[in-house]
Design a protein that fits this description.
- The chain is an alpha+beta fold.
- Helices cover 26% and strands 11% of the residues.
- A four-stranded mixed beta sheet has the order 1-2-4-3, with helices on both faces.
- The longest helix has 17 residues, at 96-112.
């Protein structure tokens, strides 16, 4: 069961509601009761800073980089058995800037060639925490590659295990 809002909550909600424009057909909520005062007669300290009205943004929000989806188990099994596995890219010996550029070009070419999955070998690095191993999943999650990359999973042991990644590619749009 919902509890009713306390007067101070109603007052704070009214301040928040005053900063937005309602959907057509809806009304603006009333300010509600004034905030309660303490026993000394002074109003309590504000819990929220004053918020200026925000104008609506007309442009779409930019795509954000976030973690990629893992490859579905059935598809990963087919990739590991090399039924869907396409070309391989070995990033050993490259610095971060060069590796990222090579990776982007490789994924775009592989997608254009119609491959659905590729193997990217990063290596494990010293002590099992190499820079390329750590950075490659972030590069694959970049919004610039979202139209190409469908998912990422660690490779099977025979393909490099923790030092390699299966990268599932999206189907190309038919033109």
């Amino acid at each position: 069961m919902k509890r009713p809002l306390r007067p101070e909550e109603t007052h704070i909600w009214a301040k928040v509601a005053a900063t937005v424009r309602p959907i057509p057909g809806r009304h603006v909520p009333s300010a509600g009761a004034p905030p309660p005062t303490s026993s000394s007669g002074a109003p309590p300290q504000e819990t929220l800073p004053a918020v200026a009205p925000v104008a609506p943004i007309s442009r779409p929000a930019p795509r954000r980089a976030g973690p990629l989806e893992s490859i579905e188990p059935g598809r990963k099994r087919r990739i590991s058995k090399e039924q869907e596995l396409g070309p391989r890219l070995d990033l050993h010996g490259l610095d971060q800037d060069r590796a990222r550029a090579v990776l982007n070009g490789f994924l775009r070419r592989s997608s254009e060639d119609g491959w659905r999955a590729v193997l990217v070998i990063t290596g494990k690095g010293s002590l099992g925490d190499g820079v390329l191993r750590r950075m490659t999943p972030e590069w694959l999650a970049d919004p610039a590659l979202r139209d190409v990359v469908a998912g990422v999973s660690e490779a099977h042991r025979r393909h490099g295990g923790g030092g390699a990644l299966y990268v599932a590619l999206k189907r190309r749009a038919k033109t």
